[in-house]
Design goal:
By secondary structure, this protein is mainly alpha-helical. The protein folds into 2 domains: 171 residues, Orthogonal Bundle (Peroxidase, domain 1), CATH 1.10.520.10; 116 residues, Peroxidase, domain 2 (Orthogonal Bundle), CATH 1.10.420.10. 48% of the residues lie in helices and 3% in strands. 45% of the residues are buried. One of its GO terms (biological process) is response to oxidative stress.
């Protein structure tokens, strides 16, 4: 008992030190083995009923992780509410009315704090929740390296500059991921997260009314709930065959020219990614393995050296 108290004290002191000095400790799957050994079970205990009640929430948590890591690293900056001193990421163009699930992360954090006070970062909670979201939707699982810290600031401009949009070309996607140290293969695998979830009519209207590299029957079906004027918020599944199953159907759809977003279909449009899309379409195990490895690599993106960090007690605000 005394050792556990001392260990937690060390973690708190380390978190405070990270506010002053840049912290880039190597992540470890056993980071909380002594200080919060039940953290993964706690995360799962909240994620399982949340996804069971609304499978779309699983896709939303995966998206939350992506959009956090792509802006200044995996530092939970996306969770920060705006303050008088900064405008955060929640209302950036790619996030507003698109990223959700904040209340699920809040629920996990509350339960983790009750068990292991001031120990587990919000960034690590998001990473674990994203892994569980994939698995709860019948996708792969993997060991999540832990030990991230939470940023003490966020910038809307950084989110607007770093997050790819639904109209992105294949070349711009390759470039955006390369800027984060992720290969074209990893980009193509990570895009497979669109095998689950929904998109708003606003983001695919241009494709279903103005593009030719699209299955006519698919386009007609999407137009029924996405008129040329109005209905911007109407939702459609990325994969209308198995919308809540984390499988390789995303790639099968691309080969059939049934990609929902322009950026989706760009991965199978006569370019270098075509061969890999065909491979994933024909072999779900290869896709699942590549996706898991790419998620671990993306989860290793860290804030820039010198960024003030801490373990937040409330994921929405700094301590």
């Amino acid at each position: 008992m005394g050792f556990l108290f001392a260990a937690r004290g060390c973690v708190a002191a380390a978190a405070l030190l990270c506010v002053i000095l840049p912290c880039h400790a190597k992540l470890s799957t056993r980071f909380y083995a002594r200080t919060c050994p039940n953290v993964e079970a706690i995360v799962r205990s909240v994620m399982a009923p949340a996804v069971a009640a609304e499978p779309r929430m699983g896709a939303s948590i995966i998206r939350l992780f992506f959009h956090d890591c792509f802006v200044n690293g995996c530092d939970a900056s996306i969770l920060l509410d705006d303050t008088p001193t900064f405008t955060g990421e929640k209302n950036a163009g790619a996030n507003v009315n698109s990223v959700r699930g904040y209340e699920v992360i809040d629920a996990i954090k509350a339960r983790v704090e009750a068990s292991c006070k001031a120990t587990v970062s919000c960034a690590d909670i998001v990473a674990l929740a994203a892994r569980d979201a994939v698995n709860l939707l019948r996708g792969p699982t993997w060991n999540v390296p832990l030990g991230r810290k939470d940023s003490r600031t966020a910038t809307q401009s950084a989110a607007n500059a770093n997050l790819p949009g639904p109209g992105s070309s294949a070349a711009s996607l390759v470039s955006a991921f390369a800027a984060k140290g992720l290969s074209a293969r990893e980009m193509t695998a990570l895009s497979g997260a669109h095998t689950v979830g929904r998109a708003r009519c606003l983001f695919f209207r241009g494709r279903i009314y103005g593009e030719t590299n699209i299955n006519a029957t698919f386009a007609a079906a999407r137009r029924r709930t996405c008129p040329q004027a109005g209905g911007d918020g109407n939702l459609a599944p990325f994969d209308d065959r198995t919308p809540d199953a984390f499988d390789n159907a995303y790639y099968t759809n691309l080969v059939a020219r049934r990609g929902l977003l322009h950026s989706d279909q760009e991965l199978f449009n006569g370019g270098p990614q075509d061969a890999l899309v065909r491979k994933y379409s024909g072999n779900g195990k290869i896709f699942a393995g590549d996706f898991a490895k790419a998620m671990v690599k993306m989860g290793g993106l860290m804030p820039a050296a010198g960024t003030p960090t801490e373990v937040r007690l409330n994921c929405r605000k700094v301590n």
